[in-house]
Design brief:
Radius of gyration: 21 Å
Shape: globular
Number of strands: 30
CATH topology of one domain: Cathepsin D, subunit A, domain 1
Distance between the termini: 32 Å
Strand order of the largest sheet: 2-3-8-4-7-6
Helix content: 10-25%
Structural class: mainly beta
Strand content: 25-35%
CATH architecture of one domain: Beta Barrel
CATH superfamily of one domain: Acid Proteases
Length: about 450
């Protein structure tokens, strides 16, 4: 949905732009399912019931509406071409036709997302904000996906990064944006399709988290890779073979875990730590939960929907990727992101995270400097932080009323629902081969 400049001005005056995203079913867009599967994000999850975050842009002059996947795991804007060998004629769901835009300017040929295409410049509009000469890539031949990818990860170039363009145009004070979901998104759970995810460029909603806010330095500006503090199961820490980096990627439909962590889940919840037919076994009535930890910040993720029936009886852990214990980078998608308040800071190359609070209350505040109340993960590691119950800050900025920009969908999950879902058949077990993960596909041109 594209908002008018008048609506944009309502929030831009306070330095915040609110953009709505909706969790969509991957079965509605098989092209995107193909793309996500090619990235090796997880195994056996590209089926009905798996949501992705969808947004609509206007590109070119006259403007063409192009539907894209909102992707924090890659930089830049990638769109399929209406005239590509893959999409012509009318074979793809949503495309951009450079021949119909009077403002398109060709730059150069280039590869991307498993295909060939060309880089160029054109006007791009989103949420009422329009930028001329925005850099984008459009396909020529068949590519790894035929669905647009709206990369949000770090780039300092306002011609390539939307959040950087907003800051450069002084529509927001700093190149920072936040995500908060109105409910948890689970693996293969139809109730979570349609969940509204709020994106605030230049601010965050201080009523949508509980417990400490923790800020971590990212090691890769192009994909927001940040340290993982650890995992715990019912308060018991999981011993890890090495330090890991975790990537909070809205384009990842599931999660990646070390084999030893999933073995502990199996041992704790009725599977006896047994690896059978390419999967870790688990009790069919299990309600497993893995907690991600970053110092004082702890985010539990219910994994009941990852309990899958075996073809010949019993159950296994499915819908995720098991990798060798020595693999450094671990992707995680909406199952964790939707249970967190996440603030992506392109200026300072940091991520600030807290446990989500699903509340009807809302108080959106601008970020024009430090994030109020956030504690440094490095300070925690160095013993400079004392345990606290909560760091929810007192607002020093007038709240911004942005409810006029919220988009509600017809399907919303009940955040209080705890009844376990019945396990469903899943004949495709998790993979354990690190080579199956296409990290160049993850980072785009940043490889």
């Amino acid at each position: 949905m594209i908002f008018s400049n008048l609506l944009l001005a309502t929030v831009a005056a306070a330095g915040i732009v609110h953009v709505p995203l909706t969790a969509r079913d991957v079965s509605d867009a098989p092209e995107l399912a193909q793309h996500l599967s090619a990235r090796g994000i997880n195994h056996g999850t590209q089926k009905m019931g798996h949501p992705f975050y969808e947004a609509t842009l206007e590109i070119g002059n006259p403007p063409q509406k192009v539907t894209v996947c909102f992707d924090t795991g890659s930089p830049y804007l990638w769109v399929p071409s209406a005239n590509s060998t893959q999409c012509y004629p009318d074979k793809c769901k949503s495309t951009f036709d450079v021949e119909k835009s009077s403002t398109w300017k060709y730059q150069e040929l280039g590869s991307g997302w498993g295909g060939k295409g060309m880089w160029g410049f054109d006007s791009v509009s989103y949420a009422g904000a329009s930028f001329d000469g925005f850099n984008l890539w459009t396909s020529i031949e068949k590519m790894g996906n035929a669905f647009g990818i709206w990369g949000q990860s770090g780039s300092t170039d306002p011609k390539k990064s939307f959040v950087q363009a907003l800051a450069h145009a002084k529509k927001i004070s700093r190149a920072v944006y936040s995500l908060n979901s109105e409910g948890p998104i689970n693996y293969n759970d139809p109730q979570t399709v349609g969940t509204v995810n709020n994106v605030y460029y230049g601010g965050y909603d201080k009523k949508k988290f509980e417990g400490p806010l923790t800020t971590l330095n990212c090691t890769h500006h192009g994909a927001y890779a940040m340290p993982l503090g650890g995992f715990s199961l019912d308060g018991e820490k999981v011993q890890l073979a090495r330090e890991h980096q975790v990537i909070l990627d809205t384009g990842a439909m599931g999660s990646v875990f070390p084999n030893s962590t999933l073995k502990r889940v199996s041992e704790k919840w009725g599977g006896k730590g047994e690896w059978k037919n390419g999967a870790w076994q688990i009790g069919c009535d299990a309600t497993p939960e893995i907690t991600y930890e970053w110092g004082l910040t702890k985010v539990p993720v219910n994994m009941t929907n990852n309990v899958r029936k075996n073809e010949n009886g019993g159950c296994h852990i499915g819908g995720l990727t098991a990798v060798p214990d020595d693999q450094e980078k671990l992707l995680t998608g909406p199952p964790l992101i939707s249970r967190s308040l996440v603030i992506y800071d392109n200026d300072r190359v940091t991520i600030t995270i807290a446990k989500a609070k699903y509340s009807d209350e809302s108080e959106v505040v601008e970020i024009d400097g430090d994030i109020p109340g956030a504690i440094s993960y490095e300070d925690f590691l160095n013993g400079k932080i004392e345990p606290v119950e909560s760091t929810e800050p007192e607002s020093t900025v007038e709240p911004t009323q942005s409810s006029t920009l919220a988009v509600k969908t017809t399907q919303k999950p009940d955040p209080q629902q705890t009844d376990p879902q019945q396990p469903k058949p899943d004949p495709m077990p998790p993979v354990e081969n690190e080579n199956s993960i296409d990290w160049c596909g993850l980072y785009g041109l940043m490889c």
